[in-house]
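Whether sequence alone determines local backbone shape is best considered at the level of individual chains. The sequence in question and its structure tokens are set out directly beneath this paragraph.

***
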Amino acid sequence: MAPRGLPDNVMMDIVDGNVWKEFSKTNPSFNDKDALSIGLLLNVDWFKPFDRSEYKVSALMMSVINLPRNERFKKRWTMVLGIIPGPTEPKGNVNTFLQPMVEDLLLLWNGIPITNSTLKIVKAALLGVSSDMPALRKVSQYLGHKADLGCSRCNFMAERDLTKKGASGKMSYYTCVAAPDRTNAQVRDQAKEYQSAGSLKIAKEIQKKNGVRYSELVRLPYFDMVKMLITDPMHTFLLGMVQNEVKLCLQNILDSKLAEVYKRMQSIRLPYDIGRLPTNIKGADGLSGLTAQQWKNFACVYARPCFSGLLPDKFFKSLSLLCEIVVHITKPIMSEEDIETLYRLIHEHHKRFAAAYGKWDISINYHMALHICDIISDYGPPHGYWCYAYERMNGYLSEIPNNGRNIESQIMVKLLQQLCFSSCELPNISAKTSTALKPILATDVEMNADNYAVYQYKLYTSPVLDRFEYQCSIDRGEVDHWPIEFLHPSKSRVKVDKEVYKSIEDFCKKVYNTDGNVYANPMIDKFGRCAVNGQTYSSDFNSTDRGSVVKALFVLKDSNELQPYFGIIRFFFKLCVTLTYDTSNGKKNEVFENSLAYVTWMCFKTPQIDKTTGLYMVNDAFYEQDRVMSPRRFLNRCALAPTGRKGAASYYVTELPR
């Protein structure tokens, strides 16, 4: 079993990936029982400290990946190692700035003795570099996207438009046949070959032949120059492929249909904590300022229902596949089957995009996307290493006041004053945390923060579990470390009507399958919102119903199979249930308090997923059964988008990204 009780073929974080597991086996000396062994993740990115200037600097940032995912990227745990000075990005390499960091990493690799702890030595290793593609190329010294050998994971040779010369000519990264993979040993030899070149001319010939120069990271004996370079999925997919393809779609849609696209976008109501799109988007130019989060929302929520029936078929099929890819890569937990599905979707999209727009529109992002499944196998779901947190940290650094002189030193000094000296608390490291390469520096609450995903995995994917009985145990609240919190507005001691009480009685008979008598108190405590499973759900009882549409899976009692349903949460409530048993000493009563939700489930317009959009369709009618359940069984919040079809009102259901 993997950490947190998950099977070996299921991943939630970096510790579940191949790199983490293999590193422990291939470097046994790193696992000394008396050592505190720490894995590190590096990020390099450039930002502008001034709003109206092109002056750019870069921060070298590092995170401790032993920490739980919900703690790892917080400001107090993000180490800013240094600032690469401006005013522009270095055109060549950043080896000069990496050298001091590599020297320290070599010391940490051998171990630094400590005397004020039950542990005897601290060891650390750089287990990954996660950045956008330009920054990753500068750190690793692979050639950029205009090179013939522009990929850092394979030896794919890009195709050039022979009718044009120079770097400004068109290039195609259309990959119909997989190229041989690069290996760590091969890249290290090529880097050393470049380093030993006798002249600049020879060095340029070597880099063109191999597609790589010398990087300071080669000095780290354990660092894999292929696997440990993580092309950030956020930049590759959201700020790269999604942004590019949506702009191409807007260019290929008739002007007469654009108004309908914007009308549909405005009709979708999202929860307030989901970043909404600007209301003044007009044409491809209006999308240039969207953030990665907004592009994720556009792909997951807006794109398919808004473009359906309005975009030519070949363009819509390509866009629909890309949206499905984004939905998959944003999953917080992934199995081997999920990775296989993602692999199929990415390769199918690669072909459809080339057929729709031509091979010359396939940039290096589309080729690097073909390697994302290997990266997920190595490091787990992107939630554990994508660059959202580092982008936020860049924003924080850019807002540090300065007088316009010696900007870099001012940023570092004020950062140290604000973070290290005033707000950073030192961790309490006990002897129990000495086991190498396991989540450390965490309280029990932090370690159990993502446990809901473990419970839900057992319920919905375990092949041997009696799912119906396990579902009933969740409804009864028989789970540990699965917090649920009801939030205001609230109203105490509310008497339910006959229809609701009938649903409560049906729920009690199903869940408390007992020979004794079951009595449900008709007086309940009513609530408008609920925080569970890492999300906050609303209801009709709240001042706004945004966030009240929910997805849940129901286990069919006879077949043990799963069926998804989409419903509207009417209210949350606490219910007291009394069970009465006949015993040898007379009758015995047991009282249970349940945290539940009352949900009306929408009828499907068609029982199968719509083949055009890949989305479920529902209508305004509601099913009468299973209206009471535990909110712990909610899978996700959803949004309803009108289909625009003739006849009775119908809606596409899109799941909101976490």
In short: Residues 329 and 382 are 7 Å apart (CA to CA). The two ends are 26 Å apart (CA to CA). Confidence is low (pLDDT under 50) at residues 429-449.
